[in-house]
Design a protein that fits this description.
- By secondary structure, the protein is an alpha+beta fold.
- It has 2 domains: 61 residues; 109 residues, Immunoglobulin-like (Sandwich), CATH 2.60.40.420.
- It contains 4 helices and 7 strands.
- It has a 4-stranded antiparallel β-sheet.
- Helix 2 links the parallel strand 1 and strand 2.
- The radius of gyration is 23 Å and the shape is elongated.
- 19% of the residues are buried.
- About 13% of the residues have low confidence.
- Bound molecules: 2-acetamido-2-deoxy-beta-D-glucopyranose (2 copies) and copper (II) ion.
- One 2-acetamido-2-deoxy-beta-D-glucopyranose (NAG) binds next to loops.
């Protein structure tokens, strides 16, 4: 096969790899540990800040990790969240390692039901947005996205190299 045709083929394959990796990275569900890596489900973490640095999509999980002697997790509505009341709770957990799946687009509210904890800031509001909508804050680096970046990088490298070959052929 002549070099020019080979270069074009490499270019097409590389472009396909880059496109598919980008698609998978955008659609993959993510598992978040609430407050991590700098905090957890505790009395010190700034959950407003933690949430602002992330974008949540349907299918993502959030895990509340804490000591069950010290805290619990109560899902409430907006009124309960605003008033720090678990009276009309949606559900509650106290395993110390509670996984909640963000099944659909919408807003979820959680707080710690122990006296005074919510008032001290132990509550979190999660906006779950469609994959194609909302702010596109960069997701935190995970093993899978890092691998995706390496593959995408290799694909881009091959693409650039093949384009350089084709460009140099133009002068022959
Ligand atoms: C979310 O949690 C559910 C139930 O534990 C599990 O089946 C699913 O694989 C998890 N998804 C992710 C992205 O971790
Ligand atoms: C949730 O609400 C029910 C009443 O609807 C109440 O009995 C229960 O104690 C509440 N759970 C928590 C953890 O506050
Ligand atoms: Cu608590």
């Amino acid at each position: 096969m002549e070099i020019r045709r080979l270069a074009l083929l490499v270019m097409a394959v590389a472009a396909a790899v880059v496109a598919s990796v980008a698609r998978v990275a955008a659609a993959a569900a993510t598992s978040y540990t609430v407050g991590a890596p700098d905090g957890l489900w505790d009395m010190h973490t700034d959950y407003g800040e933690w949430v602002a640095a992330r974008t949540f999509h349907p299918g993502d999980n959030i895990t509340f990790t804490y000591s069950r002697e010290l805290h619990d997790v109560v899902e409430v509505g907006k009124a309960g969240y605003d008033a720090c009341s678990n009276a009309n709770n949606v559900s509650s957990f106290r395993s110390g390692n509670d996984v909640v799946t963000l099944t659909a687009v919408g807003t979820r509210y959680f707080l710690c039901g122990l006296t005074g904890h919510c008032d001290s800031g132990m509550k979190i509001r999660i906006d779950v947005v469609d994959v194609t909508a909302g702010p596109t804050a960069a997701p935190p680096a995970t093993t899978s996205t890092a691998a995706g970046c390496i593959v995408a990088g290799a694909g881009l490298g091959a693409l650039v190299l093949a384009q350089a070959i084709v460009a140099s052929m133009a002068f022959w």
